[in-house]
Amino acid sequence: MTTETPKDKASVGPSKPVGAAESSEPSLKDRGNLFEIAMRQVDKAADHVKLDAQIRQILAQPKNELIINFPVRMDDGAYIMFKGYRVQHNNLFGPYKGGMRYHHEANLDEMKALASWMTYKSALHEIPFGGGKGGVKVDPGKLSRSELERVTRRFTHALGNNIGPDWDIPAPDVGTNEQTMVWMMDTYMNVVGQNDKHSMRGVVTGKSVTSGGSYGRREATGQGVVHCVTEWASDHGFNLDGCHVIIQGFGNVGSYAARLLSQKGAVIVGVGDVGGYIANPEGINPHKLSEHVAKTRTVAGYRGASKIGREEFFGLEADIFVPAALELELGLKEAKALRVKMVAEGANGPTFPEAEEHLLAKGVSVIPDILCNSGGVIVSYYEWLQNKRSERWDHNEVLNRLERRMKQTYAQVRQYVATHHVDWRTASYALGLERLQVAYRERGIFP
Ligand code: GLU
Predict the structure, then answer these.
(1) Ligand 1 pocket, 98 CB below 6 A?
(2) What confidence score (pLDDT) does residue 327 get?
(3) Residue 370 CA, ligand 1 centroid: distance in Å
(4) Torsion angle, alpha carbons of 225, 327, 173, 313, to 10
(5) Nearest CA-CA partner of 33 in 86, 103, 112
(6) Res. 235 pLDDT band, cuts 50 70 90
(7) What's the CA-to-centroid distance between 447 and ligand 1, angstroms?
(8) Residue nearest to atom 8 of ligand 1 (CA)
(9) Which segments within 138-281 are labelled E, that is strand?
(10) DSSP per-residue string spanning 227-264
(11) How far apart are CA 113 and CA 119, in angstroms?
(12) 32 pLDDT more than 80
């Protein structure tokens, strides 16, 4: 988020976080403890694979939980204290890996859940990374570009050796983008000493292509969602051409999912975000909507659709729902309202366990986050490899590799579901957990 917006200086820092006062969304705090919900999902799969008690114990908590309070000088000269987080859940398979989120409701339990999901996501796709997540408790829309730069640089500096290209590798997430990653990289590179500077480029992924990022990373998560939807459609003999899609969240993931689905002929009939919900049964042009969002930061007020309420959105006549906003947006009430055939989780943890049970009972397919939204971290892995090897892969090579990897993992999960008669989320976790179990059994713990 690098747009200049009017600011309310007293409210940017953690002491007085800014709530989205005009928002129709329930507050994150009211939605329950995200880490407990994450543990419930893991426990179900852990029971299924009969995970060793010792391994369950290790995975039940992150290895490291870091909270950093740091001051930043605002444009008007005031100093504001910010709260930054980095949770490192597991690094059995490789460096901790995961996004940095800037959000006014960021909290430790949320970071713990998100970090653990990264561990299972990497394990499921056999990417040599562990799981981590972090961020800053701040509403980035309330800061100027230069304030955001100072927050990012000071936070990165304060993290010090807690990140590194072979230790812990941040990436974009909600409220951060390529620019944020480039500031992080530049700050990190400049403190390590000039001889090592260039070997440090891989300290973050999701950078701009000019500063060492990978082609294809920007659209990777949305593209991965679309690969899953396409696989699901061919499994179910479902024609995407002309089908109706609703999407919640129109940031990086939602907007690319919308554009790529519409290329397949899908019609986007409803979209919503923190600013409001809109619908048009004739279809919403995702390119035009993206232009509107780039200017106004919300889908609300888009001229090519009419304004609807949140409840109405979930009840829209559609075939596919892509949650691509924050966690725990899809509760039992929303699940009961949904009339879709499948839910493709672009967001991390969008679905309450009760809501998922309800959806599965009424025959709705749910493609879980750790399978469906993993395109981002997969291409992050390709970016990291390119940085290590001082290579640049062309756009098609990255996209082809991503497609192969997504389809391969999708097929593995499909096979697991067919053999073990479990739901797709349990199967996805089970595959990841089994791999972690084999490695822990081989390696034991030190000393
Ligand atoms: N934040 C993204 C996720 O939740 C990407 C992580 C990454 O690329 O490391 O998967």
Answers:
(1) yes
(2) 94
(3) 10
(4) 60
(5) 112
(6) very high
(7) 32
(8) 377
(9) 168-172, 244-248, 267-273, 276-279
(10) HHHHHHHHHTT---TT-EEEEE--SHHHHHHHHHHHHT
(11) 10
(12) no
> How large is the C-alpha radius of gyration of the chain?
21
From CA 427, how far away is CA 360, in angstroms rounded? 14
Atom of ligand 1 nearest to the CA of 377: 8
Strand 64-73 with 79-90, pairing: antiparallel
- Catalytic residue selected from 7, 112, 133, 142: 133
**At CA 47, angle to CA 441 and CA 367, rounded to 5?**
105
Q: Which pLDDT band, with edges at 50, 70 and 90, does 27 fall under?
A: low
Compute the distance between CA of residue 15 and CA of residue 83 in angstroms, rounded to an integer. Answer: 9
Phi/psi of residue 207, nearest 5 degrees: -75, 170
- Evaluate if residue 2 carries a pLDDT over 50: no
The label of the residue with tokens 């009760």 reads: 354
Does any ligand 1 atom lie closer than 6 A to the CB of residue 205? yes
How would you class 425 by CB atoms within 10 Å of its CB: exposed for 0-12, middle for 13-18, buried for 19 or more?
buried
The length of the chain in residues reads 447
Which of 246, 266, 247, 238 has the alpha carbon at shortest distance from 316? 246
Average pLDDT over residues 212-231: 98
The minimum-distance atom of ligand 1 relative to the CA of 174 is 1
Give the chain's end-to-end CA distance (angstroms, integer). 45
> What does the alpha-carbon distance between residue 120 and residue 432 come to, in Å, rounded to a whole number?
5
Tokens 């499921």 label which residue?
Answer: 124
The answer to whether residue 295 is catalytic is: no
Residue type, 356: E
Query: pLDDT tens-digit profile of 35-64?
Result: 999 999 999 999 999 999 999 999 999 999
171 lines ligand 1 (CB under 6 A): yes
Q: What is the pLDDT of residues 176-211, one digit of tens each?
A: 999 999 999 999 999 988 888 889 999 999 999 999
CB atoms within 10 A of CB 122: 31
Q: Which atom of ligand 1 is nearest to the CA of 348?
A: 4
User: Residue 22: its pLDDT value, please?
Assistant: 41
pLDDT tens digits for range 272-307: 999 999 999 999 999 999 999 999 999 999 999 999
The answer, yes or no, to whether any atom of ligand 1 lies below 6 A from the CB of 220, is: no
Give the per-residue pLDDT at 5.
Answer: 35
